[in-house]
Design a protein that fits this description.
Length: 333
């Protein structure tokens, strides 16, 4: 019986090169850095697996179980992890542009340094999760549970927090330009955060700390900031407030530029376009790396099959079957 890791390398390498789906069937606890996943593997169990540097290319991992999986530095591109269980998983430094993490449970996960522009975290559980210095430009956090999440220094321009629970979250020094802040940010901290052009209407900010935050062009019309902390008059003067804006005692709304709304919309559109471009470029680079990993896996197998050059501990590998025809393109989620 051939080595299961070698067999898996053949399957996944051929699948990526041929564009066919590959199902992840792994019996080894440790997975080589060159492993590439493609196709569908719904409800797969990767509990505790070491997947450092693995490639997930347009994969369907719906409701997969990846509790405590080690995914540091993984390349996850345009994949679907809807409903997956990623409790305690380590995704530090992973690349996940344009990936769907809808309703994913990230409780106890490590996401510091995650690069996931234009990703979707709708209805995800991110309570207390560390997302320090993460790149999450134009990502979707609608209705996500982010209570106490740590987003210090995160890039969140044009992100959407509509109906998100971000109470007590730490956004210190984060970039939130042109973001949609119509969520719950009671007790959150925005020390030195950049909220230029952000849209705060519909959000709650009781006890939120805006000390030294930049609010240039931020839309505060109709927002209740009466219980917010750290606000100064010069911050309000730089923002767009009106008679319906409720401010702490001693602060007054300034005149709002009539064209401010259009400027905010234009800034948001520009930030989203830049994020999508960044995500697309990241996807191209990740795919190039995945193809290179697949090529190396095939080369390794060929070397093992050379006459007299087989590794003594690995039995001969039978010829790989011909690649099946490419299936129809999976629907866009």
């Amino acid at each position: 019986m051939r080595n299961p890791l070698v067999a898996f390398s053949i399957t996944t390498a051929l699948a990526i090169l041929a564009g066919a789906p590959a199902h992840a069937l792994i019996s080894d606890q440790d997975v080589a850095r060159s492993v590439t996943f493609g196709g569908s593997c719904g409800k797969c169990d990767f509990t505790g697996r070491k997947l450092v540097g693995a490639n997930f290319m347009s994969s369907q991992f719906i409701k997969a179980v990846m509790v405590n999986a080690d995914l540091r530095g993984a390349n996850i591109v345009n994949s679907n992890f809807t409903g997956a269980d990623l409790r305690g998983a380590d995704l530090r430094g992973a690349q996940a542009p344009q990936t769907y993490f809808i309703k994913v449970n990230f409780t106890g996960a490590k996401l510091d340094g995650l690069t996931a522009p234009a990703a979707t975290f709708r209805d995800a559980t991110l309570n207390g999760v560390g997302l320090r210095s993460a790149v999450l430009t134009a990502s979707n956090f609608r209705s996500a549970d982010m209570n106490g999440a740590q987003l210090i220094g995160a890039q969140l321009a044009a992100a959407d927090f509509t109906d998100a629970n971000a109470r007590g979250a730490n956004f210190n020094s984060s970039e939130l330009q042109a973001s949609q802040m119509a969520g719950h940010f009671d007790g959150a901290t925005f020390f030195r955060a950049e909220l230029d052009g952000a849209h705060l209407a519909g959000g709650t900010f009781a006890g939120a700390d805006f000390s030294r935050a930049s609010l240039d062009g931020a839309d505060l019309r109709g927002v209740d900031l009466s219980k917010a902390r750290g606000l100064k008059q010069d911050q309000i003067d730089d923002a767009c407030a009106d008679g319906n804006t409720r401010l702490p005692s001693g602060l007054k709304p300034g005149a709002c530029n009539h064209g401010m709304s259009r400027e905010i919309q234009a800034a948001m559109a520009e930030a989203k376009q830049a994020a999508r471009l960044e995500a697309s470029q990241g996807a191209v680079e990740a795919r190039r790396q995945a193809l290179e990993a697949a090529r190396q896996a095939l080369e390794m197998v060929r070397e093992m099959n050379l006459s007299g050059g087989r590794h003594p501990s690995i039995p001969p590998v039978p010829p790989a079957p011909p690649a099946p025809p490419a299936p129809p393109q999976a629907p866009h989620w």
